Amino acid sequence: MIVVAGEALIDLVADGAGGDGGLPALLPRHGGGPYNTAVALGRLGAAAAFCSRVSSDAFGESLLAGLRAAGVDISLVQRGPEPTTLAVAAVGADGSAGYGFYAGGTADRLFTLPGALPEAASALCVGTCSLVLEPGATAYEALLRREAERGLFTMLDPNIRPGLVPDPDAYRARFRSWLPYVSLLKLSEEDAQWLGGTPEDWLAEGPQAVVLTHGGRGLSVRTRSGVACAVRADRVEVVDTIGAGDTVNAALLLRLAGMPGTPDESTWRDTLSFAARAAAVTCSRAGAEPPYAAELGA
What value does the mean pLDDT of the chain take? Predict the structure, then answer.
């Protein structure tokens, strides 16, 4: 079982041209990087569980319904009466998305450290807003450290949202403190530029591999065992890129979590190609709608 820990929220995405006053209608869609990753894992056929704190409001109920529909275990989900976090997504002409967040006093940021994960757990994935917004960020960090120390495969996707980071230098230092507890670090080119450093720098501090996403140019990996390779992105008509990176997370976890030994270059190329294929499907439709296994021939 792959456990994904982090926020579940509602993306408000503009629907067409502006109406009265030039403001577009906003369509609510399920979102949050960890949430999208868990849904993608379920759709791809993995045994997955979601670990978070979800509101008992109507948005929260809908988010849980989405997890159930994807076959994701929700027994690790905590509940609370506080509202669901909202993220207003602004989609650019190239399909890329920027976000404004309404996260004050919301349910997901009040996550507390859970008891032991199920014995069936083989991997843990964390990241995004959940590692920024306190007091939950400290609990997610403690979960990462605890599970890494007991030998779980761990994945970190920082998925930086600069507007949510009150002290960038403090966050960068905290990010480096997580690296000894991370098996696989995955981040975008934009994340890497914001954080500073290189894959070689980060590998020296703990991870076995660093995967970088390069938007429409594809994905690359560097590993501590000396593998360095890249694949091109699959060409599709891009509707938007919402959830594409989260789909990459799921594809990597599906192929790598629990794999015996150290992946060689051929295995990495195949894994990155699979991730690129899966992300392309997500980019071809509106919102975070990751593919099902049958769509990828998986």
Answer: 92
DSSP per residue over the chain, as a string? -EEEES--EEEEEEESS--GGGPPEEEEEEE-HHHHHHHHHHHTT--EEEESEEESSHHHHHHHHHHHHTT-B-TT-EEESSPPPEEEEEE-TTS-EEEEEE-TT-GGGG----SPPPTT--EEEEEGGGGTSTTHHHHHHHHHHHHHHTT-EEEEE----GGG-S-HHHHHHHHHHHGGG-SEEEEEHHHHHHH---HHHHHTTS-SEEEEE-GGG-EEEEETTS-EEEEPPPP---S--TTHHHHHHHHHHHHHTT--S---HHHHHHHHHHHHHHHHHHHTSSSS-PPPHHHHT-
Please tell me the number of Cα atoms within 13 Å of 214 on its side-chain side: 13
Instruction: Write out the two tokens for 146.
Output: 């605890």
Whether the predicted model's global pTM rises above the 0.90 cut: yes
- What's the CA gap between 120 and 39, in Å, rounded? 19
Compute the radius of gyration of the chain from its Cα atoms. 18
> Which tens digits make up the pLDDT trace of 84-112?
999 887 766 555 556 788 889 999 999 99
CA atoms within 13 A on the CB side of 108: 31
Contact 205, 176 (CB under 8 A): yes
- Find the Cα–Cα–Cα–Cα dihedral 106, 162, 275, 246, rounded to 10°: 10
How far is residue 62 from each of residues 19, 56, 85, measured CA to CA in Å?
Answer: 27, 10, 13
Q: Please name the amino acid found at residue 16.
A: G
| Cα separation, 53 vs 35, whole angstroms | 11
The CA distance from 156 to 5, in Å, is 10
